Amino acid sequence: xxxxxxxxxxxxxxxxxxxxxxxxxxxxxxxxxxxxxxxxxxxxxxxxxxxxxxxxxxxxxxxxxxxxxxxxxxxxxxxxxxxxxxxxxxxxxxxxxxxxxxxxxxxxxxxxxxxxxxxxxxxxxxxxxxxxxxxxxxxxxxxxxxxxxxxxxxxxxxxxxxxxxxxxxxxxxxxxxxxxxxxxxxxxxxxxxxxxxxxxxxxxxxxxxxxxxxxxxxxxxxxxxxxxxxxxxxxxxxxxxxxxxxxxxxxxxxxxxxxxxxxxxxxxxxxxxxx
Length: 275
Hints:
single chain, alpha/beta, TIM Barrel, two-stranded antiparallel sheet
């Protein structure tokens, strides 16, 4: 298993070309992956393979994720500077309408969502467009679609726009500061419970570190002690390597659009290296 996990941020809209807009990049990448013979599979398949719970043929497979859980993930929205944006979910539907279900039968996107409603409101006003486009009303419909899974991206991202210090003395803007049981309970356990209550019977089983900030306390101590008990099977960072059966269970690497690749050619190089 050498599976590239590709990550997008639907709030990354600074223009309407590949390099400046993750919606444009996502649509182009779906076509390129299909045209070059890559099979898109659900992220939980990679976890099941890593944990020895499945033995699928995952050669030339790729998984798709997006972070934060904005309304741009699910709804088409009119961006005030850059116009109508087709949601990532609808781009999946568009791809399926063009090519048919048999073309990518396991087509899937994992959305890592921020749980706390007040934090999402604060982030929308401080960092996005201030249109309250970080809601949760679409989570259940997305989860029920079979094309999307809603997973855990922490309680409040420990975002710098929030009151500092946060609960248990959290230094805002740095997820590396989650270094005690109290802080981890606030950021990860609380998010698990909130998401599970809104998505039942689905309960999140995957966690993604905000900012890609992975520390030894979480990856080597708290999550190994508590992850399974709260329903988590694995966690994801941003290590820019393919996921393999040897990947750290609580720090499986991903590639980030706009950081690890900024063009179709750069993504093609990542895929060539993985293959």
